[in-house]
């Protein structure tokens, strides 16, 4: 969705997250520039458009209840993946008390 349809569907993001919405080089106020850079760095950029086709419609509550669900009843063999397991050790201190 784009334009008014996106606004009506609440499918919009904060203005500075859009590519090209803010010209950082044109800003003269250093505080404003740092604030906008911080928002962009911390929250990222909104892509122009990921999908061109509409999403498939959602199932109604009745359809969702009637739809058979797949349940995996097989048990997981932990020993099968032993070579892939990794151990980690992290030590930290909080209020002078070592955390292990």
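^ structure tokens above, recovered residues below v
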């Amino acid at each position: 969705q784009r334009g008014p349809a996106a606004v009506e569907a609440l499918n919009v993001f904060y203005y500075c997250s859009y590519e090209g919405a803010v010209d950082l080089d044109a800003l003269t106020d250093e505080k404003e520039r740092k604030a906008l850079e911080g928002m962009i760095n911390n929250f990222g950029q909104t892509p122009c458009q990921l999908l061109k086709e509409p999403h498939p419609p959602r199932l109604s509550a009745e359809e969702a209840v009637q739809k058979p669900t797949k349940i995996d009843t097989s048990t997981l063999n932990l020993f099968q993946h032993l070579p892939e397991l990794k151990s980690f050790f992290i030590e930290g201190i909080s209020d002078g008390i070592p955390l292990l």
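The CA atoms of residues 59 and 65 lie 9 Å apart.
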